[in-house]
Amino acid sequence: MATGRNHRPATRSRGIPEATVARLPLYLRALTALSERSVPTVSSEELAAAAGVNSAKLRKDFSYLGSYGTRGVGYDVEYLVYQISRELGLTQDWPVVIVGIGNLGAALANYGGFASRGFRVAALIDADPAMAGKPVAGIAVQHTDELEKIISDNGVSIGVIATPAGAAQQVCDRLVAAGVTSILNFAPTVLSVPEGVDVRKVDLSIELQILAFHEQRKAGEESGGPGRKGPDGDMPAVMPA
Ligand SMILES: NC(=O)c1ccc[n+]([C@@H]2O[C@H](COP(=O)([O-])OP(=O)(O)OC[C@H]3O[C@@H](n4cnc5c(N)ncnc54)[C@H](O)[C@@H]3O)[C@@H](O)[C@H]2O)c1
């Protein structure tokens, strides 16, 4: 199966770089917090600090949205929330299915943050016949036999995979064949998808491994040494921040 997504250009068709797209949710989260506190305007420095981003980068990112703020006043919080939400496609409702309703799938189903951001959990799907009909987060789990019908009946374009790694590719293939074009993969495996299908993967253990690397380096700096050496005596490979 082709893996065309690996060769995608780093720029979206509308000219917004992928790196900017990846920061838009950070700005939106900070802006939503300001909006909830009824803060009307925010400077680029304040917003950059709240989002954990460099302020020059923020101004450059917002220039892609055509948003330049007002000198001495800053950015209009409500308008920026609207603008970023629109750019991210969040002004419409996105039905989402979660496949694999074990520990993780059930936790995801119970997470209220999806619905409040416009991602409605349309269905929960599992291969275990004993789970069929059982309510999780108020939704009855459906068997994988129903997968194609569920996708088509609900117009689902985003699927979340929370199955064991060994089942993930097969689940992915079925989701894609049924019409899903975006996949959030929690299973620790690399998925192959055809051109036009986007995959994002979440792996908390990789994040922890990166933190472990930095911890190890900090420990090395504190002791005045160069950090713990690898098993063969070489320095560990330097990973990008
Ligand atoms: N990305 C992360 O940070 C992260 C964190 C925790 C777990 N995980 C991964 O998430 C996955 C689920 O973990 P868990 O602890 O919830 O496991 P679990 O065993 O509790 O749940 C897995 C569920 O998937 C179902 N399933 C198995 N094959 C299926 C198929 N072909 N179609 C549909 N459903 C199927 C099982 O019936 C079960 O209910 C694992 O791959 C695990 O490694 C990832």
Automatic annotation (TrEMBL):
Residues 89-190 form the CoA-binding domain. NAD(+) binds at residues 100-105. Its main location: cytoplasm. Keywords: Cytoplasm, DNA-binding, NAD, Repressor, Transcription, Transcription regulation. Residues 26-65 bind DNA. Modulates transcription in response to changes in cellular NADH/NAD(+) redox state. Belongs to the transcriptional regulatory Rex family. This is Redox-sensing transcriptional repressor Rex. The lineage of its organism: Bacteria, Bacillati, Actinomycetota, Actinomycetes, Kitasatosporales. The gene is rex.
